[in-house]
């Protein structure tokens, strides 16, 4: 260690936050409060400090995050806050700093929602019932059009990437039925989109309960038919599949094989639409299931789609810990007979 | 016969039906019902040939009393015949839907006893799905030509999209290959469906508008709309000698007069051995691709049919796509200035599509667009630069502004030739490890040159033959040949 006492260098600061959107907003709030302009904002594991950089760890404070959210909504509109929310779910390394730069730019250049000419000013309490906060389509923000801008362009592209990843998940998620409800295990590498998917699947399922587990980000979205919530977890105890489930997967694989036309074989096109990184969780892309004996029990299983009897469950397999090898561990011990 | 076998037979029989999309309507989730529909559709899987799987595409039954030459299910073919019961099919659909394998059901059928009987079976299945299982997802039903109008009405109220297969583009081809079908029997249900959709629209619009003093009481029991996602059709390309001119004019007329949402083209695949069918193995995938590109130009780029194709050149160009072809033939329209041109003009530039044109119109409100900004917007700048100016600057210098030179630029292979089917990239006579793979899958798209043997290379007179020796070794062996 050097003899001299280093003075804190306000030019060369990095912020460390906890990786959530609230943490990022707290960090941005802190930057405004302390009057600083950090060079980098990142999580502890990802940060690579520069030479001579002061590192500050920011505590997540829900109140400052909410204050900043309200401020952004009032100045730029609620759709810009949605833009920030979507972009923050991306895994790209430059995301937190890009969002910080964007918030600074947006708050500096956009005009505040003019309270003097607003026709609700007499009834508005200026904090929660501002029009800009409530009505998402109040005005499409001009920031949305600036695709070629150096600060806004990257945020728009990040949001586009996250929404694309969400669409891919809507396409390629495959649910499996367990005794209690339907669930599945998924993994996506590029963005943490479970929060964006829960609403869609809750609408699709109606009153059934389901679980969506993201292996890479260790987040599980759980819905019990009425409400959904997110849980941070590393391991998941999943009960075994039912007999009917295996039949359905065999039926789907059978359909998939029957529908292909050999004369038009074009695997590059299929790979372009369905990238190989998704194939791990798509049941029809696995090797063909070896249990043809399912055919004997198929009629009964189809007519009574209830849970398999207890004895079958006890024989089949131990509860599977969810590391990335869920499917592998099931096929390693043949489940039927 | 059990469910897996039936599924295999009936989906194998349905696989040649390409009109399978789940787009066209948005329906939000409703309490008490399972499922929803979105206007853009959602592809849940992709076949090895690249087509998307979004609906459970099956036939109700593959027994058929007709004998159309091109069809795998024709009555004179020896294939295993199977039928779903309505209960089985409804159960299967709900099970697949819950697992997020499909967006809905695509139900077609061979004609079992007569068209009415088959349509009644289909109606039973759809009623089970909609009423008992409260299925709110997407259903595409094929109407059988010759079914009675009341049954088509009922089918339309249960399905989201209806279609009737046109099969072949002209009456003569139909007479030749499908003598039991005729043009009127196919067009009548299409007109019927179109009229039903139109009257349904009008009635619903009337109940919504408030043009009286006393407020209208909306009817408490909601009835389903009639085929809200519209109507489509399909025809086979390459089985009969119609030209692209005939086919595109037919499509344009169908869009205009029958208000179809989409016309699908399917390249003819040789399945049956029949003297009436073309006997060569070539599958016209490229022609199908160009026809789809022309179809997109009609629907999204506001082109007119006469601009794309005419009587003198009745086939679409295979080297360049139809939009580039139009651009090359109308070079007086270009260059277009991106900062001021209207949206319609921007759509005509090769390399700028509807999304790119909209982005340009939005972005140019904020800043002047130059080359850097255009590249960031996602426009295919490499193609478009010959036809546009950015704030007065023309980026296509170096290539002369003539049709021949620009055609050479536009017809160049995409991405340096890395894009596209690997099988198509083999040169004549070139050995390829993919040869054995193609034969395994029974592919029939090898270009003809693969079958021929390479001619022996003719020796060039006067040149030295390579014999594996270095020059200095040659000089030691033959010192007299070295020129000192």
What structural category characterises the helix and strand content of chain B?
alpha/beta
Give start-end ranges of low-pLDDT stretches of chain A: 1-6, 288-337
| Widest sheet: strand ordering of chain B | 3-4-5-6-7-8
Biggest interface goes to: A-B, 57 and 67 residues
Q: What is the mean predicted local confidence, pLDDT of chain A?
A: 76
Major sheet description of chain B: 6 strands, parallel
Summarize the helix and strand pattern of chain B as letters: HEEEHEHEHEHHEHEHHHEHHHHEEHHH
Inertia-based shape of chain B: globular
| Outline of chain A | elongated
Number of domains of chain A: 3
Percent range of helical residues of chain B: 25-40%
How many DSSP helices of chain B?
17
What key phrases describe this protein's structure?
heterodimer, A: 337 residues, alpha/beta, three-stranded parallel β-sheet, 10 strands, elongated, disordered N terminus, B: 484 residues, Rossmann fold, 3 domains, six-stranded parallel β-sheet, three-stranded mixed β-sheet, 36% helix, globular
